[in-house]
Amino acid sequence: MSTTTDRADGTARDIRSTAPDARRRRGTRPGRLAVGIGRIGYEVVGYFRTPDAVFFTFLFPFIMLGIFTAAFSSSGDIQPGPGAEGISVGAYYLPGLLAAGMLLSGVQNLAIDIAMEKSDGTLKRLGGTPLSPVSYFLGKFGQVFVTGLLQAALLLLAAATLFGIALPTEPEKWATFAWVFVLGVATSALLGIALSSVPRSGKSAAAVVIPILLVLQFISGVYLQFYALPEWMQNLASLFPLKWMAQGMRAVFLPEDFAVLEQNESWDLGWVALVLLAWLVVGLVVSRLTFRWIRRDA
């Protein structure tokens, strides 16, 4: 036993409790935030090592922008009204495809990924470790934001350089883009976590998730011109977040004259924020109620 006799009365004092090894054992365990941040790199690398996820969530908007530009450019520019200045087909569809990329990166990616991890036993193994759900989801959130931001940047770069689409130059437009993007991605990520509890197995996850999101994309103005859809379909789309993400992005990238093509002839950015916040809360509550580690004693 290690002792010292530096007391005035000459009695020994045990110094084991102040040894460096003891201090390290007590104080070096990383916090939840540090562990979650550390998992972001792991999740991003794992994402790009999955070819089907990269194709259907990362590259899909690029492919669709190229298809729309090539297939419909011959029909001429899209105009908000007779005599008004028009924009190219690619420029019109760009905002919707940016919104779709946010949805795919969050909802589709996480819903399928977590369902697969639940099915193959990854969550069961993680449930037996000190890893907390907070750290686990911080890693997932970080991965969605990193890949979603990279996807948006590359899509905008391709739009400007390959398809000749003019991007906005006003700082306020990019400020709107920033908050719509952050709020949209956060909402999509939480809804993806919530939706991951629906598939009964990892094998059925894609079959459950992809059709739901595909329908939403068609009725929310991603693949079809929203103003041309029937009113009942527009009203139905208004119940879901993708329509509002696409509308927020149209407010950024389309000329102000195009606001008359929206349901209320306005960009309604206040409603964009309120609806996305409402769905964010729904996703948070449902995720909290449905997610659990699959332990051996479950």
UniProtKB/TrEMBL annotation:
Q: How does it sit in the membrane?
A: Multi-pass membrane protein
Q: Which UniProt keywords apply?
A: Antibiotic resistance, Membrane, Transmembrane, Transmembrane helix
Checking InterPro entries in the record gives: ABC-2_transporter (IPR052902), ABC2_TM (IPR013525), ABC2_TM_bact-type (IPR047817), ABC_2_transport (IPR000412)
User: Compositionally biased, Basic and acidic residues: which spans?
Assistant: 1-16
Record has Transmembrane as a keyword? yes
Its chief place of residence is membrane
Taking every annotated instance into account, which residue ranges of this chain make up the domain ABC transmembrane type-2? 52-297
Which parts of the chain span the membrane according to its record? 53-72, 92-116, 144-165, 177-198, 205-226, 269-291
Q: Where in the cell is it found?
A: Membrane
Ranges where the record places region Disordered:
1-27
Pfam families in alphabetical order: ABC2_membrane_3
Q: Which PROSITE patterns match?
A: ABC_TM2
Q: What is this protein called?
A: ABC transporter permease
Question: Which taxonomic lineage does the organism of this UniProt entry have?
Answer: Bacteria, Bacillati, Actinomycetota, Actinomycetes, Micrococcales
